[in-house]
Design goal:
Blueprint lengths: L1 H16 L4 H24 L4 H8 L2 H4 L2
Amino acid sequence: MRFALAESTLHRAYLKSLELPREALARFRGLADWSLERQREIEAADSVPFETWRQKYLSHDNLVV
């Protein structure tokens, strides 16, 4: 187990030392910005109070497999 952890730690350090190409970094940042904006839109459009949603989610009908 120690061997696997040591190798994993070394591999992680190696991967973190690599730099992403500028194009890839820009694409990931754009995707993150789009995702956050989409999340804000979805949350703003939510018309059901959280407590109502929670009670329905935990209702017996939804717990039955």
